[in-house]
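re: ur question from earlier - yeah i can do the single chain one, its not a big deal. heres the input i used so u can compare w yours
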Amino acid sequence: MAAVTQSYSSSAASGRQRVNGADLYYEQTGRGKHGVLLLPGALGSTRTDFGPQLKSLDRERFTVVGWDPRGYGRSRPPDRDFPPDFYERDAADAVDLMKALGFGRFSLLGWSDGGISALIAAAGHSDLIRKMVVWGSNAFITQQDLDLYDAVRDVSKWSARMRQPLEDVYGAEAFADTWEAWVDGVAQFIKRPAGNICMELLPLITCPTLIIHGEKDPMVPTLHAQYLHKHIQGSRLHLMPEGKHNLHLRFPDEFNKLVENFLED
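and the output i got, formated as tokens:
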């Protein structure tokens, strides 16, 4: 059973839903017929990753659900771990959460790690996924990617502005430990042929897909967006010249309009 509490407006609710043995925290806004699930990035949560989307996506056209994947944010305990199939686990949790909340077909908005899980979910559930938007995501890992992750492994070197939201969620020590575990978790993919995460699944994606990429993204080189675009049939690629990794937070009005137009197209 989901424990539901009314939140910051009459059309918003938050609660916990038991899914695949985990109690997953979620927030839901809007009353539109088109269900949309927001999938956060590494260590991400509903509030840290998608505030402008929960607040401003059209509530008459969409019902928007944000969630904290198991081990992240308010979906603890348990603490997060990173087995070889952690992206697949998040994808299964995401789909099963929406089914448990009563959604038949729905769309996915996946950022960074959440985009990887969205790709996996869309490949495996073409009957359920209406449309998908991903940004800051990749289907494989290169040594260059690992070098970028290793450069930010030590969170004490981050700016206070970047650290604070995550320290508020996890506490300073748990945040540092979980982030290191994430870096080690993604490093395991470099041992696979071509650094594969989900390359073989991309041709199985049949839903309309929009790939957004910030051309100044310091974490995910443009080649990853180009690869997704090439291998997801019929996908669209939209480049944002001034966009960085968190382009949906830096340019929320532009991003939200892009997404609304695509979902309604």
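Residues 75 and 257 are 30 Å apart (CA to CA). not sure if urs matches, ping me
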